[in-house]
Amino acid sequence: MSVRPAAVAGMFYPDHADELSQFINNSVATAENATGKLIIGCPKAVIVPHAGYIYSGLTAAFAYAAVKSTAIRRVLLFGPAHRVPFYGMALPECDVFETPLGRIELDQESMTAALELPHVCLNDQAHAREHSLEVQLPFLQIVLNDIQLIPLCVGMVEPEAVAEVMSALWGGDDTLVVISSDLSHFHAYQEARAIDEKSIETVLAKTDDLSHDQACGATAINALQQIAREKHMSLKLLDYRNSGDTAGDKDRVVGYASIGCYEHRSAHE
């Protein structure tokens, strides 16, 4: 069995299982207490940040609190490539991903189907040290049980191509779509809030595409917006803050949002 080991444990998140579990459980509990999961409901898709947990972990927890202990058994995960430039969308060649909390099996059947689609390739190098996908895994391991994963690293590709893959692998109520993305990078605190507020409004309204200056995961976000328009889905902001609100200074901040995308009901019900 081929394993993709944890690459950023001890850097982006704790590398000891007990400490990692405690952080996630505490963050999810804080999010549940703040929002009321039963009021928000379970999203079909979430947009979630991917910085170090001390910066963006609490914001991520708001998305994962909304899917905790649901019937989800399959996760379609999109994250932007930060380490290796390539064209298209990359799947790994391994059988499982590993974190300090254990292993997650990959959905080989769905991955084989995805490889039949345009712009999808196998590229282990793209996955080897990519943090945008990995930092989501411990949250998924804590809030869901026995999931299978389809991890797609998104390189240089048009949103329409990503939307085609997303639609093909969309699945039913047992499938969650996770889009990993931070928002603006390295602006002063108030400027960042203004930029991010506009970006969030755009996503919630499904009116226009984001640029990569607004969100590093803009390609997959724009693909989700396309599908959300077609399916008449509603989107809701679950949490927003930036690194100046958490563990960083306010001179150069990175923005983080968790957004839920709802298929079967209004996000405000």
Structure, described:
Belongs to the MEMO1 family. This is MEMO1 family protein MMIC_P2050. It comes from Mariprofundus micogutta. The structure is a single chain. With 269 residues, the protein is α/β, with parallel strands linked by helices. It has one domain: 3-Layer(aba) Sandwich (Protocatechuate 4,5-dioxygenase, Chain B). It is 37% helix and 23% strand. The protein has helices at residues 17-35, 37-40, 53-65, 108-114, 124-128, 131-134, 137-143, 159-168, 189-205, 218-231, and strands at 3-4, 45-48, 74-80, 89-91, 96-99, 102-106, 120-122, 148-154, 175-180, 185-187, 234-242, 253-262. Strands 1, 2, 3, 4, 5, 6, 7, 8, 9, 10, 11 and 12 form a 12-stranded mixed sheet that branches. Helix 8 packs across helix 10. The longest helix has 19 residues, at 17-35. The radius of gyration is 17 Å and the shape is globular. The protein starts with a strand and ends in a 7-residue tail after the last strand. The model has no long low-confidence stretch (mean pLDDT 95).
Q: Quick one: biggest sheet? A: 12 strands, mixed
By DSSP, the count of extended strands is: 12
What's the SSE pattern?
EHHEHEEEEHEHHHEHEEHHEE
- Uncertain spans, ≥5 residues at pLDDT below 50? none
Name the quaternary structure: single chain
CATH topology-level fold name: Protocatechuate 4,5-dioxygenase, Chain B
Second rung of CATH, namely the architecture: 3-Layer(aba) Sandwich
Tell me, briefly, the overall form: globular
Radius of gyration: 17 Å
Corresponding CATH superfamily: LigB-like
